[in-house]
Amino acid sequence: MTVTEAGRMGGRLVSERYGPEFYEKIGKKGGSSTAKKYGRDFFGRIGKKGGRAVSQKYGPGHFEKIGRKGGQKVADLIERAKALELGSSNERDGTPELERSEADVARREREQHEQAMGGVPAPDS
Predict the structure, then answer these.
(1) What is the rounded distance in angstroms from the CA atom of residue 99 to the CA atom of residue 89?
(2) Is 8 helix (H, G, I), strand (E, B) or coil?
(3) Rounded Cα–Cα distance for residues 55 and 45 (Å)
(4) Which domain holds residue 87?
(5) Is 113 within the bounds of a domain?
């Protein structure tokens, strides 16, 4: 078992035992203790530092790319919500509209991943 797998398993067990609220609680404690120690503007400084590192590693177009991907994801979610709201199980070609929409979203996500990763296929979920 790798360290990553062990961490994932431990995190899952903690989440099952204490619930997701536990992570929120310890995150707030850590954030407020860090703010007391370093000041509130510390978060802005480390955010900028991280942003510069990511930009150097992935290039200046990286944030534009992930922003576009996020925007597309929101548009897809809105589209799915509208389909649900309309009760869109009208059948066309034997496939309910919602199923077709979910398949389209999954296909687009795989294509976006491959494009962002230089042709590397998305892992199966």
Answers:
(1) 9
(2) helix
(3) 15
(4) 60-125
(5) yes
**Reported pTM:** 0.45
Q: Compute the C-alpha angle 41/44/50, nearest 5°.
A: 145
In a domain, residue 38? The reply is no
Q: How far apart are CA 63 and CA 8, in angstroms?
A: 27
Q: Is 121 helix (H, G, I), strand (E, B) or coil?
A: coil
Rg (alpha carbons) of the chain, rounded to whole number = 20
For 16-66, the DSSP string reads HHH-HHHHHHHHHHHHHHHHHHH-THHHHHHHHHHHHHHHHHH-TTHHHHH
Ramachandran quadrant class, 39 (left: phi over 0; alpha: psi -120 to 50; beta: rest): left
- Tell me how many domains the chain contains: 1
Q: What is the pLDDT along the chain (125 residues), one digit of tens a residue?
A: 999 999 999 999 999 999 989 989 999 999 999 999 999 899 999 999 999 999 999 997 999 999 999 999 999 999 988 888 877 555 444 555 555 667 777 777 777 777 776 666 666 64
In this structure, is residue 41 part of a structural domain? no
**Residue 109 is assigned to a structural domain of this protein:** yes
